[in-house]
Amino acid sequence: MELIQNKPDLSSYLAADEVIDHDHPLVRETAARLARNAADSYVYAQLAFEFVRDTIPHSQDSGDMRVTWRASGVLEQGTGICHAKAHALAALLRAEDIPTALCYQRLARGDGDGHVVHGLVAVRFNGAWHRQDPRGNKPGVDARFSLDGERLAWVPDPKSSEMDYPVLYAEPHPAVLGALKAAPDRPQLWQTLPTAL
C-alpha cells in the first residue's frame, strides 16, 4: 500500500497544535528524559514507541473510564485508547524533530458488532514512512517498532470489510477528534467513535 500525505509540506508533520502539543512542558520533559538514553533518532523513536506502548495502558484493557485526547493529557493521566496513545507518541516524536503522521485502519469490533476506526502513527525515516502501532500489547497482540516490515497490532481482513486507510494526516481526523472531545467517558465513546472514514 502506498501511503499518501494529506499535506505536501513535511514540516506539517513536525507541527504542534491543540492535540499534538509537543510544546507542553510535560511532553518536553518526557521527551528529554527518553532522549538521554538514545544514541540517535532511530533509538529515540523506538524508546518513545515502547514508552507509550508499555507504560500508558490502553483504557479498554485496564478498565479506565476516562477519555483522553490531548498528548499532554495522555501523559499526565497515564491512560488512553489507541487514538490518544497515537497522539502522545506523535508529540514525543515531533518534540525530537521526527516527522510523524496519524493514520488509521478500519477494523471489526472485538464483540463482532460492526466496525471501528483504529488509530496509529507513521514515522519518516530514510525517505520513507513506516507505520507503528503503540496501542499496547496483550494476549493476541504483539506490536513492535520496526522500519523493516510492519509489526502492527492487527492486519486488516478485507473479507470482514476491514481496511488500511492510506492517508497520512498531519492532524487528527476531525471525526475521530470530535468523538474523543465530546465523550464524557469511555463507554459513551465506544458508541460514538466513527465506524469508517
From TrEMBL:
- Which InterPro entries would you find in this protein's record? Papain-like_cys_pep_sf, Transglutaminase-like
- Superkingdom field: Bacteria
> For the Transglutaminase-like domain, which residue ranges apply?
29-134
This chain's protein is named Transglutaminase-like putative cysteine protease
